């Protein structure tokens, strides 16, 4: 059984841990490098990316996180976690850094200019036939992706139709929405499978 860590510096850590348990994996709260060493995969929760970045820096976790992700650790970021996995961000605060890993440009609070939060049906590649009921809270969107990035989902309907809201690049994935909040854990199951396959490849 894989152990999937949840970066527990800030954000909705408990909700992700519960969703991962529903997907049949062990979970571990990750705050320090020693804990990061023990996990087979990592979830970066939703929350506030500026705070997450500042805390990661003061806990001396930025470099360890970058090294493990460069070394092939599977990771999944939701909302603020999506921002943390982006190689480039727009509308960050001055000096805001990410961990990086996914060759994409993400705009912070992109939908938030119109509305703070909203819900929408998003069809997701590889996660079943029914669209995903996605909850967006001051969400980013993905403005540009490199060739290695697979788009898994786009917003539908309204002015924001076509905006990229779910992506995957190899062992890294990210969603602009919060699948930990709805009780539909297809995204966590998908990530748990990705982690299991990564573990099989390492053996
Ligand atoms: N707006 C937040 C940020 O910039 C993300 C919001 C969220 O994670 N729900 O980090």
Automatic annotation (TrEMBL):
Stated family: Belongs to the glutaminase PdxT/SNO family.
InterPro entries: Class_I_gatase-like, PdxT/SNO, PdxT/SNO_CS
GO biological-process terms attached to the record: L-glutamine catabolic process; pyridoxal phosphate biosynthetic process; pyridoxine metabolic process
Identification of the protein by name: Pyridoxal 5'-phosphate synthase subunit PdxT
Enzyme Commission code: 4.3.3.6, 3.5.1.2
Gene3D superfamilies: 3.40.50.880
Catalytic residues, chain numbering: 79, 178, 180
Native organism: Actinomadura rubrisoli
Pathway(s) of this molecule: Cofactor biosynthesis; pyridoxal 5'-phosphate biosynthesis
Superkingdom in the source lineage: Bacteria
Catalyzed chemical reaction(s): aldehydo-D-ribose 5-phosphate + D-glyceraldehyde 3-phosphate + L-glutamine = pyridoxal 5'-phosphate + L-glutamate + phosphate + 3 H2O + H(+); L-glutamine + H2O = L-glutamate + NH4(+)
CDD domains, sorted: GATase1_PB (cd01749)
A cellular-component GO term for this protein: cytosol
Binding site for L-glutamine: 47-49, 108, 137-138
């Amino acid at each position: 059984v894989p152990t999937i860590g949840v970066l527990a510096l800030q954000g909705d850590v408990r909700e992700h841990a519960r969703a991962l348990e529903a997907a049949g994996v062990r979970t571990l709260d990750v705050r320090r490098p020693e804990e990061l060493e023990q996990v087979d995969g990592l979830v970066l929760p939703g929350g506030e990316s500026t705070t997450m970045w500042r805390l990661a820096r003061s806990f001396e976790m930025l470099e360890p996180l970058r090294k493990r992700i460069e070394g092939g650790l599977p990771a999944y970021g939701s909302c603020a976690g999506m921002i943390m996995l982006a190689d480039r961000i727009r509308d960050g605060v001055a000096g805001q850094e990410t961990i990086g890993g996914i060759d994409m440009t993400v705009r912070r609070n992109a939908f938030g200019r119109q509305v703070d939060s909203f819900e929408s049906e998003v069809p997701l590649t590889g996660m079943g036939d029914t669209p995903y009921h996605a909850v967006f809270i001051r969400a980013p969107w993905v403005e540009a992706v490199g060739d290695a990035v697979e788009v898994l989902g786009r917003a539908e309907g309204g002015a924001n139709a076509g905006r990229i809201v779910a992506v995957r690049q190899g062992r890294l994935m990210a969603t602009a929405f919060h699948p930990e909040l709805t009780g539909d854990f297809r995204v966590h199951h998908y990530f748990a499978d990705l982690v299991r396959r990564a573990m099989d490849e390492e053996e």
